[in-house]
Predict the structure.
Amino acid sequence: MIRFVFFVVALFLVLPAGASPILYVDDRALLTELESKGYAFEDVFGAEAGTGLSALQASSPAYRSIVSIISQDVAELRAEMKAGGRVLFEVTDGNVGRVMDMRWLATDAARFRLVGLVNRMDRRDFADLRGEAGCGEVRLIYRLAYRFTAKKRTMASRMPFNFNAVYSVLPDEDGGCEAAAARWTPGLDEALDAGWLAGGALDKAGLRLKQIELNAQVVRFPSGQETEFGGQAAYLMRIFGLDGDTVTERPLENTPDAALLSSDAALRAELAAYVRDNVAAVDLGVYEIPEKFLARKVVSYSTFGSVRLANRPFEPLFDPADFADVAFDGMRLLKTPQALLARLENGSCQGCHQAGSTAGFHFIGKDDADSSPLNRIEVGLSPHVAAELPRREAWLAAVAAGNTPDRFRQLSSAPPAEWLADTVAYRPAKAGMSCLLPEEADGFASGWDCEAGLACTALASASGVPAKLGQCLLPPDSPNMFSGHPCVTGEIATNATQPFNDRMTVSAPFTAKAAAINRETYNCRPPKIGVPAGIAYRACTDRDRTFADFRPGKPEPREICGLAGGKAFDLCVATNDFESCLGAAVVRGNRPTCSADMFCREDYMCQAFPPDTPGIAKVKGKGFCSPTYFIFQMRIDNHPTPW
């Protein structure tokens, strides 16, 4: 079903009767047309669209306020890191920390482009908690992108800096949501186009702006400095309320203010009481922690984000013994206090965005024609969103039919599942995907297995964190080894007050033990070259280069001859000088195969092949897993500048 939904949405065909509802839109041409119909980022602020961020800042007091708050946040984080021995630079070629240059938010060379439209009617469950009438949400996701000309070259790229404009969907005239749900499914004679969306699901008369959410990479440490992690990055997360020109800082959903609660035992005890009283709601994944406990700003950290203490705000606050008196009888997911804490962690902003995500994001979107062919992604969704699609579709189908939907939410690290009659049947997790190790799985009433031939293996652990990062991996001596498979494990020494100073120690290779790179056996490439947990690596043969083993009706190879590069590669990607890149900077190298059905492991993402790669027709819809920060558009640093 994921594949069906993905291709329906991506290709925008006229859908037949009985078609599934539209869950998201990521088609670049359609989104550009929507921008021209009143759905550009500037329209959120009531400003003229298409004029660039300098013009937006000049015309919108609200946008100026948001930029001012973000700038202050970045300045404070920069000062904190400097005090902790980590000096940051906007532009540098050295092995030092890099920080977001805030001038990008005020230049007419840049805009926030609409990269995604997401149907979140299932969020009605949360409005019900508040006793509010409504039919969930619509989310318009905007990503920072620049384009300018210098020295007769077009400089263009996107950057890992996203805003999410969240709109509440108003109820039908009768107070229900059946008609609102039906507006997401084109009829037999209707095409999915901008006019259909603007006159239906996106009709502004039926929407009300709720808030604007920020998730932005603001600091990056390169692998040359973080040789064991393979690189690190920090992401700023905030929510803004917008009422005309007035901006307010809003609380982050289900994300505790750890600093406040750590210093206030009475408030902490009150939060524990809330959890005990609402454990059934937490079990379902539909709960709202009261505002007085919540943070208004957090910073999440990668790499190995799913196991970092900084992304687990409940861990420093509570011990499982604090919930020893909770009865878990009849729960769908939870069996133990430790599992309860894990569920709470996963429901926080940083917990969710660093588990089952792609580079700290869940929706990245497709590239436009300005992007260099060497700077494009094949899959613009995270593993979590892909796994969520069947659940959201089942929810919408129930509402459209006038039935009560299943409100249960799975963990963000879970694989796709079949949703039938209040039961969840998980599909086996594929190679590199997350899994629950036995000591953690015992706390949950339901879980999932790895595919045949794979075993749930501990890849990383962190001091102060009870859970380990588990991934579905091959046995170390497997004859089915493939390029990109992890080859080292690691232990993180947590710095509880300065997570940017967490330190990792990696093991000797546990697989891929060839002494040197060759074309037949696997060598372990170390994290210091920018590959977290290392990668098993086999050089491409002539057969690999032509994708000879990708044949219709045959099992799909787990590895594919992709692209790799270095500083010269970065330069020509930024300048869109494709021919020079191919001639001087690009080398081929085997990487894991990826697609809309086969995702990359944590800290990697699915990069697209340039369209003139020899033999590309054989691997249509396929990409190769690259370390996140190898992809130029996933870094905030060292982009060409218009100033």
User: Anything to note?
Assistant: Confidence is low (pLDDT under 50) at residues 1-17. The CA atoms of residues 559 and 593 lie 5 Å apart.
